[in-house]
Target: Kelch repeat and BTB domain containing 13
Amino acid sequence: GAEPESKTPDELECYSAPRASNMRVWVGGSLFTVDSMLLVRSCDYFQALFRSGMRECCQGEVRLQGLPVRGFLTALAVSRGERPSLSVDEAVEATECAAFLQARPLAQHLSNLIDSSNCVQLCHAAATFGLWEVFHQAALFIRDMYGDLVEEVCFLPSELREYVESLAPSSFVAMGTHSPSMELLQDSFRNICYLDEDGGEWKHLTDLPIDASTSMAGVAVLDNRLYVVGGVRGVSKQVVNSCFCYDPLSDFWSTFGGPQQPRYNFTLVGHEGRLYAIGGEFQNVVMSSTEVCDLASHSWSSVSPSPWPVAGAACAKAMSRIFVCFWRPMETTDIYEYMPDWDEWRLLTTLIRPQSYGHCMVAHRDNLYVMRNGPSADFLRCLMDCYNLTTGQWSAVHSRYVNSRGALFTAVVRGDSAFTVNRSLTLEYTIGDDRWIPRREMNGFPRSGTVWTFLLRLPQTSRPGTIGTADGALLTRRPSYSRAARHSRHNGHSR
Model:
């Protein structure tokens, strides 16, 4: 064979890493001039291109044949930190670009955009182009709204429908306030129950460990595992120093060490393999201390404190972002975003309402819904305001909502529905453009006091009459649908 072409030292340097310069990228007949480092940071394709020593790196020009121009523009926007809204067609084109360019930021953005208007198309497109993360997230979303999307799902290829139906849907789960007691006592407040939506009844799922407390604890769900952190026992508020984790697929509880700073009445949120414990109290002193637990090592460390001391702050995750609701009685509600990548707090917006402040916050699509007490501290009627992350605008959610015994202060969103519960009633709402519309009523949760609510994907054995895998585990197999289509679509790309 021919001798390999020799390279000068300067050429070897340019193959090893991109220079701090622009690169010309042809997409079809369109030319883009883009910062090389931006491409390398956001796209594994370009990172591999520079590492491979291809001549295009030194020439500063790459040609990509067959990719949609509009999808490439979206990839560039996301790589710059933008969060563009996309039509269904734009999202499908962006899916093709994310798969070919191996653009992880774009794939994450597409996952954040999944909703009832695009989930079926994104599921199909992501399976076609092999963007497995987006495909799986779209399939999970469809599974949670299967009854509402059954007509659209019929247009999916049979292999994709079977995959969706094999997944476990999210269940509405609740537990009451429990403080550790003697093991011999049959404490019903240790019961954790799930809602059997077919029968409209609450059924037993598991029991809290004997030493676990949900009284003033931090509670969060991450990667389909329930975490109960801290809490107190007794009137002296002795802090529980352990963390308890429940895996519903194995029906097993495990424990690990708690935060470095003992705390109770704090906010716990799970995000990308970490738990964040925000604020709280210790010895009746309200704190701004914030800690993060890396769940891979179960180690806690301090991060930037919250803007000011806070206890029991409302929190919600939207579009893979963390938002915390701070209030200064009785009029001002500030919403801050915590940005883990920069370990910074940023004031997002402020809501001022006479004699009222936010008690609960939930997210739906790119909206944050803040539930607050009514005028003159009326807690029997709940008012809601909506903040849209895309437009940066507040709007009032019409009507007043019955909040008997704190039902709306425990709202949980699944798909386009919001579930609320108290001892008398479980009520599902359909989230509309300007109001929440009551959809169906079911039995209340049979416990008094504070109720913790969340979503878990449960094994089929815990959910009689539902579609699911034999053991309820989320499948990891990948449909082979349209591999030939993917290869033929991209075989003209320069590599």
Remarks:
- The longest helix spans residues 88-101.
- The domain at 170-462 is CATH 2.120.10.80 (Neuraminidase).
- The chain has a mean pLDDT of 87.
- The two ends are 22 Å apart (CA to CA).
